[in-house]
Amino acid sequence: ILNVEQSPQSLHVQEGDSTNFTCSFPSSNFYALHWYRWETAKSPEALFVMTLNGDEKKKGRISATLNTKEGYSYLYIKGSQPEDSATYLCAFKARSNYQLIWGAGTKLIIKP
Amino acid sequence: DSGVTQTPKHLITATGQRVTLRCSPRSGDLSVYWYQQSLDQGLQFLIQYYNGEERAKGNILERFSAQQFPDLHSELNLSSLELGDSALYFCASSVAGTSNNEQFFGPGTRLTVL
């Protein structure tokens, strides 16, 4: 059974601080890793889709790295702002499956 | 605005009833995905269609069915509804069906079963 773990489950960060959290996935049979941001009362929005080991992607203050050999991805947020408060989801795609396997998310709360 | 539309926005119905949720993907997207989010639960993948054909199946109950039409819109049919089916149902679309393309989510349909 394919499993995707995200840690921590929730995180409180002071405004202006930087933070990061983890997505762990099976290291074999890797095809793609997705990150989404899901704000309360809205729909999930894609941040990154990563396919290559060692990939690093950046969008503004948010960046992500990928290690397919050990089966993890980190999401970094630099200089957190209140608008970064959301649940961050990762989703793993194995080569042998069509569907994405979703993690339960990391809920990030930025304290002003 | 992701370009994915879902109707209705809200639906209130009674146990035992049947409802249909509708989704129109972004222009040009061939894949449609259905997800369920119950209270305090994460996203549960239900089913994927690609260009009219079922591509992948997740935790979809036998009481639920879906289809994708030639114009690429999709419908999710929920029958013999139970209280536990109350949830937010999202539709998402992507360009292709290979899941290395990002998914664009609609605003969701909130279903309440009384």
Average pLDDT over all residues of chain A: 94
**Poorly predicted spans of chain B:** none
Q: Assign a percent range to the helix content of chain A.
A: under 10%
Q: What would you report as the Rg of chain A, rounded to the nearest angstrom? A: 14 Å
Q: How many distinct helices of chain B?
A: 0
Major sheet details of chain A: 6 strands, mixed
Helix segment tally of chain A: 0
Number of strands of chain A: 11
Distance between the termini of chain A: 41 Å
* Largest interface pair: A-B, 20 and 24 residues
* Low-pLDDT segments of chain A: none
Number of strands of chain B: 11
Main sheet overview of chain B: 7 strands, mixed
Described by its quaternary structure, the protein is heterodimer
Q: Work out the strand percent of chain B.
A: over 45%
What letter string, H or E per element, gives the SSE order of chain A? EEEEEEEEEEE
* Percent strand of chain A: over 45%
Secondary-structure element string of chain B: EEEEEEEEEEE
First-to-last CA distance of chain B: 31 Å
What report would you give on this structure?
The complex is a heterodimer of chains A (112) and B (114). In chain A, strands 2, 4, 5, 9, 10 and 11 form a 6-stranded mixed β-sheet that branches. Chain A has a 5-stranded antiparallel β-sheet with strand order 1-3-8-7-6, with no helix packed on it. Chain A has strands spanning 5-7, 10-14, 19-24, 30-38, 45-50, 56-59, 62-67, 72-77, 86-94, 100-102, 106-111. Helix content of chain A is 0%, strand content 56%. Chain A has 112 residues and is an all-beta fold. Chain B is 0% helix and 50% strand. In chain B, strands 2, 4, 5, 6, 9, 10 and 11 form a 7-stranded mixed β-sheet that branches. A 4-stranded antiparallel β-sheet of chain B has the order 1-3-8-7, with no helix packed on it. Chain B starts with a strand and ends with a strand. The chains are: A mainly beta (112), B mainly beta (114).
